[in-house]
């Protein structure tokens, strides 16, 4: 699903109005119908619903929902904040329609002395104060109202975006000036802000409501951000022909493991094999020999000269993919081996670097310059900050990822709830699969194995990273079904990888 900016959404709205014979009022009516249906499916008519409407079309949506709920016999209390004496045409029209209803519990707030209603835990608040038309962070009376809503026990549903939150970047927005929604009902598209963990407390659960904006315009509009869903992953995966052989599925090298961390190599190797690589070699210190041969007999073992650490990374074959990092530690000898490998790596083939390889590089940052274009790095927030400096927010981190990806021409896969695959052209692909069961040791090693496997099979790096993140999350979802979110082990995720690919392709 494409994720558009406010400006792009406005232009798609405009296109729909101009080319599909729909009026702006009809779009408000569609949005309100979808929102009302959602509320009706969740709460009974006796439930008290308190609606706060602002002066623009977010408010128009809210007023129209109020009317629809009253028509369905709901117990609704509506407040319209017309502080500046200026309503959008759609808002003014919906105000008029509400006034035509006998006994509607409707209050228009025009001045400063507003007595807020009691918002106990059995109330549902519908927040239609501001949506995509927000110009600046909320102040004054709106700020107080937001604080009042946030301080209450009510269940809060926000229309489109929580009021006070910008759809994209929220650098100067304070938590107390944004509605903290339990549920956000996004009109037609989710927003970039939904995928940034800093905003999780505002957005709550979210759902997209389709108001049938022009599909043609949606398809043809360019985008910078994308949410990867099952159908996208399906389109990326290539079916396996009946006459294919091992040789068609590539040859991967996984440089992983050290004394006490051989599990990382085992999990990465299993995940690579479960995602279909043709041939896999694991390069580890000698101490890993028995462990790897016994637990992953399908993989070849290439012993380092050293007993407990990796000291020599040289390519004895022309591998289709080389992944380095899981469990290698940050011994000085390993840092040196990594440095001389990267500097002398002359084939120009992209590399995949994860975990301790990134920690090693963070102390030798010039190595980033030496990475072949379209190499993939897969840091979590801590590894990212070690590489590129401390960040106070996830939003700042994502902006840095965009800059650094372009600067070094590498793909940065920033891990988290919505893993972001940041590409050098500035595009970000957010992953939708996965669950908190994946927050378990070794989970990242499994991801590395999957991506390496896809790279070896000939998927271009950007696709290998995006598809790898989706398959990993999806395998985690299957593992969580079996073992529960507390019980998932990274090995379970690796084992479920093949099934995940099968299910995605069905
Ligand atoms: N055709 C459309 O435009 C559609 C719009 N829809 C709804 O319309 C919303 C966007 O409507 P609008 O563009 O009217 O924008 P909003 O309803 O978000 O708000 C715009 C109004 O708020 C005022 N405002 C902005 N920032 C303020 C601040 N910090 N303090 C005080 N006042 C402030 C503006 O002056 C303007 O009057 C969407 O979020 C969505 O809910 C949907 O109904 C679908 C169709
Ligand atoms: N709450 C979550 N929801 C979805 N995916 C998650 C969640 N927490 C972690 N993950 C995923 O699990 C993996 C964890 O990787 P990482 O932090 O490197 O683990 P480790 O270092 O233990 O191998 C990442 O792919 C991340 O996106
Ligand atoms: K809102």
From TrEMBL:
<keyword id="KW-0547">Nucleotide-binding</keyword>
<keyword id="KW-0456">Lyase</keyword>
<keyword id="KW-0630">Potassium</keyword>
<dbReference type="GO" id="GO:0046496">
    <property type="term" value="P:nicotinamide nucleotide metabolic process"/>
</dbReference>
<feature type="binding site">
    <location>
        <position position="380"/>
    </location>
    <ligand>
        <name>(6S)-NADPHX</name>
    </ligand>
</feature>
<feature type="domain" description="YjeF N-terminal">
    <location>
        <begin position="9"/>
        <end position="219"/>
    </location>
</feature>
<feature type="binding site">
    <location>
        <position position="163"/>
    </location>
    <ligand>
        <name>K(+)</name>
    </ligand>
</feature>
<keyword id="KW-0520">NAD</keyword>
<feature type="binding site">
    <location>
        <begin position="131"/>
        <end position="137"/>
    </location>
    <ligand>
        <name>(6S)-NADPHX</name>
    </ligand>
</feature>
<dbReference type="InterPro" id="IPR000631">
    <property type="entry name" value="CARKD"/>
</dbReference>
<feature type="binding site">
    <location>
        <position position="444"/>
    </location>
    <ligand>
        <name>AMP</name>
    </ligand>
</feature>
<keyword id="KW-0521">NADP</keyword>
<keyword id="KW-0413">Isomerase</keyword>
<feature type="binding site">
    <location>
        <begin position="57"/>
        <end position="61"/>
    </location>
    <ligand>
        <name>(6S)-NADPHX</name>
    </ligand>
</feature>
<feature type="binding site">
    <location>
        <position position="327"/>
    </location>
    <ligand>
        <name>(6S)-NADPHX</name>
    </ligand>
</feature>
<feature type="binding site">
    <location>
        <position position="445"/>
    </location>
    <ligand>
        <name>(6S)-NADPHX</name>
    </ligand>
</feature>
<feature type="binding site">
    <location>
        <position position="58"/>
    </location>
    <ligand>
        <name>K(+)</name>
    </ligand>
</feature>
<dbReference type="InterPro" id="IPR029056">
    <property type="entry name" value="Ribokinase-like"/>
</dbReference>
<comment type="function">
    <text>Bifunctional enzyme that catalyzes the epimerization of the S- and R-forms of NAD(P)HX and the dehydration of the S-form of NAD(P)HX at the expense of ADP, which is converted to AMP. This allows the repair of both epimers of NAD(P)HX, a damaged form of NAD(P)H that is a result of enzymatic or heat-dependent hydration.</text>
</comment>
<feature type="binding site">
    <location>
        <position position="264"/>
    </location>
    <ligand>
        <name>(6S)-NADPHX</name>
    </ligand>
</feature>
<keyword id="KW-0067">ATP-binding</keyword>
<dbReference type="Pfam" id="PF03853">
    <property type="entry name" value="YjeF_N"/>
</dbReference>
<dbReference type="GO" id="GO:0046872">
    <property type="term" value="F:metal ion binding"/>
</dbReference>
<dbReference type="Pfam" id="PF01256">
    <property type="entry name" value="Carb_kinase"/>
</dbReference>
<feature type="binding site">
    <location>
        <position position="160"/>
    </location>
    <ligand>
        <name>(6S)-NADPHX</name>
    </ligand>
</feature>
<comment type="subunit">
    <text>Homotetramer.</text>
</comment>
<comment type="similarity">
    <text>Belongs to the NnrE/AIBP family.</text>
</comment>
<dbReference type="GO" id="GO:0052855">
    <property type="term" value="F:ADP-dependent NAD(P)H-hydrate dehydratase activity"/>
</dbReference>
<dbReference type="InterPro" id="IPR036652">
    <property type="entry name" value="YjeF_N_dom_sf"/>
</dbReference>
<keyword id="KW-0511">Multifunctional enzyme</keyword>
<feature type="domain" description="YjeF C-terminal">
    <location>
        <begin position="229"/>
        <end position="504"/>
    </location>
</feature>
<feature type="binding site">
    <location>
        <position position="127"/>
    </location>
    <ligand>
        <name>K(+)</name>
    </ligand>
</feature>
<comment type="similarity">
    <text>Belongs to the NnrD/CARKD family.</text>
</comment>
<dbReference type="GO" id="GO:0110051">
    <property type="term" value="P:metabolite repair"/>
</dbReference>
<dbReference type="GO" id="GO:0052856">
    <property type="term" value="F:NAD(P)HX epimerase activity"/>
</dbReference>
<feature type="binding site">
    <location>
        <begin position="415"/>
        <end position="419"/>
    </location>
    <ligand>
        <name>AMP</name>
    </ligand>
</feature>
<dbReference type="GO" id="GO:0005524">
    <property type="term" value="F:ATP binding"/>
</dbReference>
<keyword id="KW-0479">Metal-binding</keyword>
<comment type="function">
    <text>Catalyzes the epimerization of the S- and R-forms of NAD(P)HX, a damaged form of NAD(P)H that is a result of enzymatic or heat-dependent hydration. This is a prerequisite for the S-specific NAD(P)H-hydrate dehydratase to allow the repair of both epimers of NAD(P)HX.</text>
</comment>
<dbReference type="InterPro" id="IPR004443">
    <property type="entry name" value="YjeF_N_dom"/>
</dbReference>
<protein>
    <recommendedName>
        <fullName>Bifunctional NAD(P)H-hydrate repair enzyme</fullName>
        <ecNumber>4.2.1.136</ecNumber>
        <ecNumber>5.1.99.6</ecNumber>
    </recommendedName>
</protein>
<dbReference type="InterPro" id="IPR030677">
    <property type="entry name" value="Nnr"/>
</dbReference>
């Amino acid at each position: 699903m494409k994720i558009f900016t406010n400006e792009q959404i406005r232009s798609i709205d405009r296109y729909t109005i101009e080319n599909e014979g729909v009026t702006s009022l009809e779009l408000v009516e569609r949005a309100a119908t979808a929102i009302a249906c959602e509320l009706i499916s969740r709460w009974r008519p006796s439930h008290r619903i308190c609606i706060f409407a602002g002066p623009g079309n977010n408010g128009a949506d809210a007023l129209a929902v109020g009317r629809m709920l009253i028509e369905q016999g709901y117990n609704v209390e509506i407040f319209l904040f017309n502080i500046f004496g200026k309503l959008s045409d759609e808002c003014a029209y919906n105000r008029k329609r509400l006034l035509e209803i006998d006994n509607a519990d409707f209050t228009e707030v025009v001045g400063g002395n507003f007595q807020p209603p009691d918002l106990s835990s059995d109330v549902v608040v519908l927040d239609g104060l501001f949506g995509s038309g927000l110009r600046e962070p909320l102040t004054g009376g709106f700020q107080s109202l937001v604080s009042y809503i946030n301080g209450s026990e009510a269940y809060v549903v926000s229309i489109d975006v929580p009021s006070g939150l910008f759809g994209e970047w929220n650098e100067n927005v304070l938590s107390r000036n944004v509605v903290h929604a339990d549920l956000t009902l996004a009109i037609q598209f989710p927003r970039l802000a939904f995928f940034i963990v800093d905003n999780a407390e505002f957005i709550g659960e979210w759902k997209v409501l389709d108001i049938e904006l022009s599909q043609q315009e949606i398809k043809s509009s360019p985008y910078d951000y994308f949410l990867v869903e099952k159908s996208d992953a399906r389109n990326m995966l290539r079916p396996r022909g009946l006459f294919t052989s091992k040789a068609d599925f590539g040859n991967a090298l996984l440089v992983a493991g050290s004394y006490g961390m051989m599990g990382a190599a085992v999990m990465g190797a299993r995940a690579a094999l479960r995602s279909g690589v043709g041939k896999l070699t694991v390069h580890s210190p000698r101490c890993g020999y028995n462990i790897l041969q016994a637990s992953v007999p399908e993989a070849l073992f290439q012993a380092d000269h050293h007993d407990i650490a990796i000291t020599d990374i040289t390519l004895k074959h022309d591998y289709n993919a080389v992944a380095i990092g899981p469990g290698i530690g940050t011994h000085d000898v390993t840092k040196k081996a990594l440095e001389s490998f990267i500097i002398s790596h002359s084939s120009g083939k992209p590399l995949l670097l994860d975990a301790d390889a990134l920690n090693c590089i963070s102390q030798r940052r010039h190595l980033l310059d030496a990475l072949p274009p379209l190499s993939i790095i897969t840091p979590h927030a801590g590894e990212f900050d070690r590489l590129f400096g401390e960040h106070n927010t996830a939003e700042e981190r994502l902006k840095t990822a965009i800059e650094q990806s372009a600067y070094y021409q590498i793909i940065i896969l920033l891990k988290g709830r919505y893993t972001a695959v940041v590409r050098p052209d500035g595009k970000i692909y957010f992953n939708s699969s996965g669950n908190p069961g994946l927050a378990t040791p070794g989970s990242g090693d499994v991801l590395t194995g999957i991506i390496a496997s896809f790279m070896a099979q000939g998927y271009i790096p950007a696709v290998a990273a995006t598809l790898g993140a989706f398959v990993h999350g999806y395998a985690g979802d299957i593992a969580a079904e079996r073992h529960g979110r507390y019980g998932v082990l990274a090995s379970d995720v690796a084992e479920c990888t093949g099934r995940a690919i099968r299910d995605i392709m069905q």
